[in-house]
Design brief:
The first copy, chain A, is an alpha+beta fold. Chain A has 9 helices and 4 strands; from the N terminus they run E-H-E-H-E-E-H-H-H-H-H-H-H. The interface between A and B is medium-sized, with 24 and 24 residues.
């Protein structure tokens, strides 16, 4: 059996993060697509606490949580590092990771799932948080500097930009309001491995229609 | 001026985490207590995004977020490591860190701030999550193994145990229900550096009374 296995779900940005890191680092792996409506015994066995994907299994040892997996990959396979080597730069990347996953993501989820006044307020907060990210990206090629790295992988949730009709928060993320983030997405889309790990628009549209109640 | 400065707030478990790590690692530092009702220009300058403490300033370079700071300290000062050296064990510690800060902490905050049925539900969730942590600690001296480490520092929010009258969630954390966590707290209280970084009960009681609206 493969030394590295990844249990994932195609539409999950968290699964896509791990796949992109594996590809960028050149680690060979076996991918197992999970049916989230009928989770396999492997998911329950390897991630009994959260029962969620992505799960990485390396030499039969399981790991859950995309951000935990990304750091594990970088510490275990030293070639093609995705995190900065300098401790202060690495800490700064972790600071922004927290901003994206613990500030922007919950706010955006609230904007997607609420209605009326609550939704308007959440959209305004998303707007302010994106403005902060736009400023952070100013003058850089990628979030991680001259080439794609850890923070670009983490920021893959910004591909919402691509689905303004499907995801409420996509309407906030217009090229006019956020030209730098928009430009960053265009650059990412030109990179082969990113495209291999990107959720394709048409497939996503069909998926969203099929689960219309559970908007991401 | 000191090479390492820590801006903190005495009652913040996040500030206490950083102090404990500095002491465990033997790093000398200058501590600056912040008045959160009247934040100093330093807080606004060094942490413009969140305007919160703790903030570590090392050689004039600022860092915010307790978890980010803990990893930075361990990567910059190699002696007395607080994180495990093995990548898989380190990843496992990060998995539990996420569980504590992103699952248990928000649930406990909800239990503290809500009332009636919502509070009962949140308390039940806290109970379930603590059961998972209790199982994780079973058979170990500390969360980090034979000696205090990263995960014990992160789990310092469990000192709620000590304030059953002041913090709603403290009522859930009884020695009868969670004997292993309770025993762990008794062990921690015997360690000098932990005690130096612990919020003293009497002072905390007065503080909670003074801000009775904003229960932690």
């Amino acid at each position: 059996m493969a030394e590295v296995k990844l249990f994932g779900f195609w539409a999950s940005p968290f699964s896509r993060r791990v796949e992109l890191a594996l590809k960028l680092k050149g680690i060979s792996y076996e991918y197992i697509e999970e049916d989230l409506s009928n989770k396999s015994p492997s998911v329950l066995k390897y991630n009994p606490i959260h029962k969620k994907v992505p799960i990485l299994v390396h030499k039969e040892k399981p790991l859950a949580e995309s951000l935990v997996i990304l750091e594990y990959l970088d510490e275990t396979w030293k070639s093609n590092p995705i995190l900065p080597q300098d401790p202060y730069e690495r800490a700064t990347a972790r600071f922004w990771r927290k901003f994206i996953d613990e500030m922007l993501l919950p706010t955006a989820t609230r904007a997607n799932r609420s209605t009326g006044k609550e939704q308007e307020q959440a959209k305004e907060e998303v707007h302010q948080q994106l403005k902060i990210l736009e400023d952070e990206l100013k003058g850089k090629e990628f979030f991680s500097g001259q080439r794609i790295g850890y923070l670009d992988i983490v920021a893959n949730i910004l591909f919402w930009f691509e689905y303004p009709e499907e995801v409420t928060v996509g309407k906030v993320l217009t090229p006019e309001k956020f030209p730098i983030i928009y430009e960053w997405i265009q650059k990412l889309k030109k990179v082969d491995v990113v495209n291999e790990c990107r959720v394709q628009k048409e497939k996503y549209q069909d998926f969203i229609k099929s689960i219309s109640v559970v908007k991401p």
